Amino acid sequence: MAGPQHFRARAWTASRFVVPDPVWLTPFGYLCNPYFIQQQADRYGRTFKLNQFGTGAGPDPRQRLWQPVVCVMGMERAQNILREHDARLLPTIAPFNRFVPKGYLRYMQHQDHARYRKILQEAIKPAVIDANMPLIEQHLKSKLPGLASAVNEHRLAPEDALKELAFAWFILLFFGLAPGDARMQLMRHLYAGIDVASDNDTEVEEALNELGATVLELAQTYLDPGPGGTQPGPSVVGEIVLADSEALRDINTLRNLIYMAQASWIDFSGLLGWLFKTVCEEPAWAARLRQEAVSALPPDAAPLSLRFVQEVLRLHQSEYLYRTVLADISFDGFTIPTGWLLRFCTRENHRDPAIFDQPDAFNPDRFLDPAPTRKEYSPFGASRIACLGVHLTHRLATCFLLAVTENFDCSVVRDGPLEFRRWHWKPSSKFHARMVKRTAG
């Protein structure tokens, strides 16, 4: 019969896009081998099927499912599908979505998404980030010696040490609490209570209620500092309530703010881990960063610190986008059935040799003019629900990068293969580094 083919079970052995039976029997290759997806694409083409076992799809993201997945290679192809079939594609839902009545921002219905995105986008403005950078730089400078000591003595894995740094910065930016504030410990406790891995709904709900009350108290200080009080510094919560004093009475705004701070902190901590490891592995680029810090940049050139961050995002931090198919869609001569997953392969797209020369090599200068276009490089998403924190990420990451390379020579002491943990590939748990304090001159 003429017309589009279906990725149906009965057609698996007949389709040239289908992964062979051994992958069906062991659907964990993508968790064991960071190059697995690219290897399948090399064998079967730019659209192919595999199977995975996991959580995150469908109406109950906690249910473990045997999930058929259609993988799509090519950034522009992904963007076309996301644009043309937006109404039929749902981002795979994170478990914490169930604690927000209308859903976490990226999972909301279109009309709700437009409304709440506007509130949050206007609050996470560059001016808020920039105003807090002197305090963040001061905090980082004070913490670097302790970080170096913990890393050198192997008392703390780099990943854990960097999480602590990131947590302080995001609590400052989102809620206006300075790193030394006595309430910071309470925020750590409450955020531990809503850990995304928790399946105790009662405990999470209790922690959310207490966290919500704490955030409302912090918000009130922007509206009424009290007798002789001063308004806290700029923050996301401050921007929200100063624009609309009743905005956080809406539980959807309040809990989206709480979870956005958490998700941003977790994701950014992962980026810090990759930045630190790359600094250890690339001493020549670290030396260039120090040199550029005291040199004049050519007009309109992106600083090397920003290009360094962009290259780390290209190679490591941006891996995939997933969507659940809500109704059959046609693409590439096939009909992708309702309930299946689509995986847009960002990591592999960012290593496409047709776009990036020597794609596996670390080379921040590839972001000099002409820089890759958004159809070639898109680490912050590729649709209407793309990340709101581009400026935030770039400012914090470059701050960390410059502080570390200016003050320390970093090197790898021990390493191991990459590990897939909590949704992403991360540096090996065997990775240890050495940080040697630099002397003037």
In short:
It is built from 15 helices and 12 strands. The protein is an alpha+beta fold and 441 residues long.
Helix share of residues? 40-55%
| Topology, number of strands | 12
Largest beta-sheet details? 5 strands, mixed
Global geometry: globular
Would you tell me which CATH topology of the domain at 1-101 and 319-362 applies? Uridine Diphospho-n-acetylenolpyruvylglucosamine Reductase, domain 2
Multimeric organization: single chain
Class of the domain at 1-101 and 319-362 in CATH?
A: Alpha Beta
Spatial sequence of strands, sheet with the most strands:
2-3-8-5-4
- Low-confidence segments, ≥5 residues, pLDDT <50? 1-26, 56-61
Q: What class do helices, strands and sheet pairing give?
A: alpha+beta
Rg calculated over all Cα atoms: 23 Å
* Contiguous helical run count: 15
Could you tell me the strand content as a percent range? 5-15%
Secondary-structure arrangement, i.e. CATH architecture of the domain at 1-101 and 319-362: 2-Layer Sandwich
End-to-end Cα distance: 76 Å
H/E series, N to C? Answer: EHHHEEHEHHHHHHHHHEEEEHHEEEE
Mean pLDDT: 87
